[in-house]
Design goal:
The structure holds two protein chains of two kinds.
Chain A lengths: L1 H18 L3 H24 L6 H6 L3 H32 L1 H6 L5 H8 L1 H22 L8 H29 L4 H13 L11 H7 L3 H14 L8 H32 L6
Helix pairs in contact in A: 2-4, 2-7, 4-7, 4-8, 4-9, 4-11, 8-11, 8-12, 11-12
Chain B lengths: L1 E3 L18 E11 L4 H6 L7 E12 L4 E5 L6 H9 L6 E6 L2 E2 L5 H5 L1 E4 L12 H11 L4 H14 L15 H13 L5 E5 L7 H17 L4 E5 L3 H7 L2 E6 L2 E7 H6 L4 H11 L4
Helix pairs in contact in B: 4-5, 5-6, 6-7
Chain lengths: 271, 281
Amino acid sequence: MRSLMRKVLAFIKRDFNIESGYQAAFVMGLVESLMLLVILSFVGRLVSPTASGTLSRSGMHYFPFALIGVAFARYFDIMLRMFSDSIRTAQVTGCLEAMLFTRTGCITIVMLSSLYSLISGGLQLLLILLGGVLLFGVNLQHMNVLATLLVLLVSVSIFVGFGVLSAAAIVWLKKGDPITWVLGGLSGILGGAYFPVDVMPGWMQKISVLIPVKYSLDALRLTMLQGASLATVAKPVGTLAIIAVVILPASAAIFAATIRKGRKEGTLMAY
Amino acid sequence: MTTTNAPSALISTESSARESPLIEVQHVTMRFPVPKRYREWVLAPLRPRRVFTALTNANLEVQTGDRIAVMGPNGAGKTTLLKLIAGVLLPTEGKVLLNGHNTLEQNTAPRSSVGFVFNEERSFFWRLTGTQNLEFFGALDNLYGRQLHERIEYLLELVGLPDAGDKVVSTYSTGMKQRLALARVLMVEPDVLILDEPTRALDPVACDEIIELISTTIHRNSRKTLLIVTHRPEEASLLCNKVIVVEGGTIRGSESIKELSAKGIAVVDYYRQLMVSGRPS
């Protein structure tokens, strides 16, 4: 355990040292997010709370709804891409083979390679939420912190699982990752980040039931904006937990198998 | 060392009677699949992918303390052989035993006893300093704190980079990167040191310095086993006690450099003989 913690610190230190040379990227990402908030706040003025059943039933205004949706959907999207991005960068720079030569297993390497993105993405998420509260007056006073953290934990587990699957796809296919393409693309439309799913046609709403981010955003809006209890969000959290239990071990096994296949076919470093 | 597979297979039994081999390559064949082109997907979608055979039925035994030069033309299968030994590649057929571990079954344990310097030293984080790189890779090898820092200081001194540790790797010359790569593999004192063309792309002075460094490192520990890919016969004579020649995916032959010298045959002549006739005269 102590050894793992030291490796965690080594990866964070490495990425911090590298990323600290690219301050502009972090600042620009943040400015871009804040500009999106400005756009959403203006769109919010056009959208009546009665425009959707979800909004009218909960008494929620559009802007807080979209703030939670966009901020967390972006965070989950980072998680979906961070593993494949770190694997690809390691392949391109030639560091993957060197890391796999050490006494640290490949799953540990890929998990820890993505920690920094998780942390910096989390920081961006917090700043966006803070911007929503301080600049646009979103009220998070009723937030049920414990329930929110639980929803977040289960959601992160799922996206970590899909992220590892996406890394396996990159090792296998080299370019063009179908996991991110399908899940990232569908989540944008059907996940309910920008608008409630009940404004979509019935057949699209039926498909949205298959999109994990929808459950995460529904539960997070309830716990953060309305202070919903764990019991209230038990259904979406339960669904997410079932997905997490399946996807986490399956993605780890598939990733290990892909690495083995890469070693067997000599394509591990090909990109 | 014992090698077989080619018509010219030679057996050198200098140390084989003493103990069980450290490395055993048994009937190893390595085939790489060739990705299908769009044309093939359209015209023959069901036809299996073509394969490129990089190594065919290779057999090799390496004893602890052997210092082996692996020679052969470009694309002969030298790097493939070494990557198989190191466990980076897994054989299509046959098996590789390292310290008794089959690399197909136990991959991490064998890999941890091998230090591999790749011929293309892009494998550093270029925006980090030499010391930061060594700190990171050291942590992955379970070295931490004072022990790690003392080791880094010692190794940077050993490889002749005592003042370059604080410079970012992007400012290093090719020779400096090779030295840093050597420092990295020596972090954990591996039993087997594999160097894939360590002097490639170096000027003559840097080349001599690297050879001197390897020689010092190896002679410091006579139990360390060395496999080095080289195109320079003088490098083989200086650093190694045995030579194997790989060509066309087969091990053409092997010989003790001492025995070659006793017969009055230079390493370069032995290599040429095998390349021309497939067997030594």
